Fold this sequence. Notes:
Structural class: alpha/beta
Strand content: 5-15%
Number of strands: 11
CATH superfamily: Aldolase class I
CATH architecture: Alpha-Beta Barrel
Largest sheet: 11 strands, mixed
Shape: globular
Order of helices and strands: EHEHEHEHHEHEHEHEEEEHHHH
Number of domains: 1
Radius of gyration: 19 Å
Number of helices: 12
Low-confidence stretches: 1-8, 263-272
Amino acid sequence: MNLTPRSTTMNVHDYKYADFAHSPLMFYYEVTQACDLVCKHCRASAQPTAHPSELTTHQSKTLIDQLSTFRRPPVLVMTGGDPLKRPDLFELIRHATSTGLQVALTPSATALATRKALYSAREAGVSRLGISLDGPDAKSHDAFRGWQGSYDRTLRMLDNALELELGVQVNTTITRRNFDQIDEMAELLATRGIAMWSVFFLVPIGRGVGEQRITADEYEVAFERLWKHAQSQPYAVKTTEAPHYRRYVLQQQGNPQLNPKGPTRPSVGHRAPLGAGDGKGVMFMSHTGELYPAGFLPLKCGRFPQDSVVDVYQNHPTFRDLRDSDRFKGKCGICEYRQICGGSRSRAYAVTGDPMESEPDCAYVPTGTT
Length: 370
């Protein structure tokens, strides 16, 4: 099979701090909640079959058209559940790329994730795959994912993506289960030809309520390990729902670019661009059209198609509050890193019931406080 070489990078580096006010950097569309897995940490508590009110093909295309009207159109991430459970998936991808949107896809490691399916995604226009791997061996990963054989299938997906010249971001969720395996994971991924390792820190929501978070002090240990690997591995490293890793990185760099009005360019390795976070450069839409600041922050701010995604992002009070770091409470509201970090608003809400409260899993004490 002949393959046409293509770029596997996501063009996000022209996104500026000022763009937060009018355009998300990343728009996550949960195209379906159907999935054949029962992962321990699943945000969506996914089910085997699609919801009867899942958006239609026409409605999904209308959404895509609307996304293209943002002043700076976002990267569209088609997620789930398992996006491959949706019959019109490749049609939607082709429509999105025809409007000029970049598309990323997060397929689940099931029997649907064949080489043929990944090839079809590539030909439809997918720029990057997000593939989950939560342990360095079959025992740890399969226990997390809920079925034996998930690890081997995930490695086959990684091999197929590399062969197809599809860029890959590996997503790993850190909990009490695998905290001590960070270094093993990093070394394993060094052999897989990936573009980025995105390390997610658990938010207790959905089935994730039953998992154990690591402590605030253990975050600092994890950050130290991730920073070490960011300097030495052939892939980039970023965190998800752990924006205080940016604070750690700046501390290691002697606080370059620390500016009360916000950073002027991305941090080292162009990861964690510009301090994006829940509702601040990020927007999420459920399979039934409900609009949220993030997939892990269940504060409904509207419903598509009744509400405009552009208007909700730009003008809904929840989104506007989340973009104003000076409104945060507790130590997050006075922290000198609040513009580029700001803490996980999703975790603050999950733990305290208030998305503006301090990050509950941060050990840092802001300058000037006791």
